[in-house]
Amino acid sequence: MKQLNVRSFLDRNAGLILSIPALFILFLMVIVPFVMALVTSFTNLSVKSLLNPNHLQITGVSNYASLLTDRAFLTAIQNTFFFTVLVVPLQTGLALLFAVIVKGTALWQKVLKTSFFLPVITSMAVLSVVWTLLLNPSIGPINTILSLLSIEPQPFLTHKSQAMLCIITMSIWQGAGFQMMVFLAGMQAIPKQLYEAAAIEHSSPWQNFRYVTFPLLRNTTIFVILITTIFAFKLFIQPHLITQGGPQNATMTIILQLYNQAFVNGSYGKASAISILFFVIVLTVSLVQRNLLPKEIKS
Amino acid sequence: MSNKKFNKVLLLVTAILLGIIFITPLLWMVYTSLLPDEEVLHGILSIKNLFSIKLSFQNYRDVFNRVPFFNTIGLTFLFTGTIATIGLFVNSACAYAFARLPIPGGTILFTLITALIIIPFETLAIPLFLMLGVKCNLMNNFAGLFLPYCAKAFNIFFLRQYFLLLPKDLEEAARIEDASWYRIYFSIALPLAKPAIITCVILDFITHWSEYLWPLIISNKSTFETAQIGLGHFYTLPPIQWGDIMAYSVMATIPMLLIFTLFQRHIVLTNATEGLKG
Predict the structure, then answer these.
(1) Peptide bond before residue A247 is cis, with ω within 30 degrees of 0
(2) How far is CA A285 from the centre of its chain?
(3) What ipTM is given for this predicted complex?
(4) For residue B87, which residues of chain A lie inside 8 Å, CB to CB?
(5) 8 Å CB contact between A237 and A125
């Protein structure tokens, strides 16, 4: 009899019991740290005040204020936006082009699709190291090829005017394959009849793309631009591994600043302020792009 | 007709050439990893004496001699495997509950979960470090490494969408047969949602295999690092030998490549993107 009661209790509350592990972990690993980041950003928490709590003070918005006058941080914001502004349109455009080319089941299309996608399943850390070798001024193959074409060897990553452009190039190359896959998935949803109708009207491949594929990929494109923008703002691995933000802060980024403030300078308060600013940027970008979506999809 | 066949072959050859150009950096990685040290210094000119050079796996052996690579790769597998396994059950159970069962405050709770998707991990990294690394003393500890990823709002959202699309008939029949909800979740819903679950597991595996920021933060010992962090240290470890570094890179890539090739056809990307539009 008692056993039956337990069973019926468990069964009546199955919804709560099945969802509680995930809810508990999300609360502990997302909500609590988020609130902590917010609170910490208004304090001077640092390595020093961790050891001696007497040093801990509430400093109001002073972390934010000092960040907005911090030369390195402003450069980081500028660099990150520069990276994003170049990477997002170029990568999305390239990915769309790739998707149009490899859409289909012919063998040559499968071959191309695989090679476009390979960099995506190679980790960014590995690719950063590989590109450091490729762009090595003395033993890197790129400079050797340039010299064979009688072009002067370039400093690439070691010069402040070229370093960020190198990172931009490799990032576009790395990520385009992923966006291509999303575009391909979007293209599958386009009704075949539209292309058949277009064929009756003798439309050219360009017209097919301009008047059928592209308009119907509108939502996919917005989605791709949204995630690419957010990924781009997170730029960290490449500068951390390849240039450490240099030369002369030319590749310093927001997340690299966050990391350095916390683990090089030991100022967790300031790092938390960057965390929150970063969240605000990401939130703004998503809200703006979400509003570009037609109403019926949002619901 | 033969003209058409010729065009087809021409197209295939062009595609292969373009594909090779596109993945030259990856091919260069593999090529360098097989070169003897002195040839690496010749860079691209080493191709000229390609036929006299003896390509070998010596660099791979060197990696194992110079760093505890087995350790590193084992930890990376354990890290990704644990997250994928725990996540599989935790997220799918929660998703199933929100798709089918009454939960007090369910609508509000679910809106909250979807809102969490927007919070980037970068925002949580510092407090998680203070919480797990400093307060709970989990630096260089396996629990500290995987705990932040055990539940994922996006996976819950994605799996719930999938559960909602499944027909209810089987579950209703099982209810009439007096099966408990746990039984139905485990023996009916989970197997039916296999495509979505495999997608989550593979995407988790790939994401966390390449994970960088958190493993970097939560470890400060060379005996406790994932392959990505290990590579970052190895590539500044004197003497700098590019052959060895590329061998390390290749070995850090192969597991991801294998998993992806094996399970690639199970990925349902369409649903994944439909999901986030909301």
Answers:
(1) yes
(2) 12
(3) 0.89
(4) none
(5) yes
| Residues of chain A positioned with their CB less than 8 A from the CB of B45 | 144
pLDDT of residue B150: 92
Closest-CA residue of chain B to A297: B278
**Contact between B231 and A129 using a beta-carbon 8 Å cutoff:** yes
Domain ranges in chain B are 2-56, 64-276
Q: What is the pLDDT of residue B275?
A: 41
What is the interface size between A and B, counted as CB pairs within 8 Å?
262
Q: Please tell me the distance in Å from B51's CA to the nearest CA on chain A.
A: 19
Preferred mutation among A34, A108, A128, A217 to probe B, highest tally of B CBs within 10 A: A108
> How many angstroms separate the CA of residue A35 from the nearest CA in chain B?
9
Domain B64-276 in CATH: superfamily?
MetI-like (1.10.3720.10)
| DSSP codes of every residue in chain B | -HHHHHHHHHHHHHHHHHHHHHTHHHHHHHHHHHS-HHHHTTGGGGGGGTTTS---SHHHHHHHHHS-HHHHHHHHHHHHHHHHHHHHHHHHHHHHHHHHS--TTHHHHHHHHHHHTTS-HHHHHHHHIIIIIIIS--TT-HHHHHGGGSS-HHHHHHHHHHHHHS-SHHHHHHHHTT--HHHHIIIIIHHHTHHHHHHHHHHHHHHHHS--HHHHHH--STTS--HHHHHHHHTTSSS--HHHHHHHHHHHHHHHHHHHHHHGGG--HHHHHHHHT-
The per-residue pLDDT for B228 is 95
Would you call A130 and B253 a contact, using CB atoms and an 8 Å cutoff? Answer: no
Higher-pLDDT residue of B272, A164:
A164
* pLDDT value, residue B1: 53
Mutating which of A130, A268, A281 best tests the B interface, going by the most B Cβ atoms within 10 A?
Answer: A130
Q: In a mutagenesis test of the B interface, which of A18, A45, A284 is the best target, namely the one with the most B β-carbons within 10 Å?
A: A18
Decide if pLDDT at B277 tops 50: no
CB B90 within 8 A of CB B156: no
Work out the minimum CA distance from A9 to partner chain B, whole angstroms.
11
Per-residue pLDDT of chain A (299 residues; tens, 9 = 90+): 566 688 888 888 888 999 999 999 999 999 999 999 999 999 989 888 888 777 888 888 889 999 999 999 999 999 999 999 999 999 999 999 999 888 888 888 888 898 999 999 899 999 999 999 999 888 888 888 888 888 888 888 888 888 999 999 999 999 999 999 999 988 888 888 888 888 888 888 888 888 888 888 888 888 899 889 999 999 999 999 999 887 889 999 999 999 999 999 999 999 999 999 999 999 998 888 878 766 544 43
Task: Please answer yes or no on whether A22 and B94 come within 8 Å at the CB atom.
Answer: yes
- CB pair distance less than 8 Å for B277 and A223: yes
Q: State the Cα–Cα distance between residues A117 and A177, nearest whole angstrom.
A: 4
Are the beta carbons of B94 and A21 separated by less than 8 Å?
yes
Chain mean pLDDT for chain B: 88
Determine, for residues B273 and A223 on separate chains, whether the beta-carbon distance falls below 8 Å.
Answer: yes
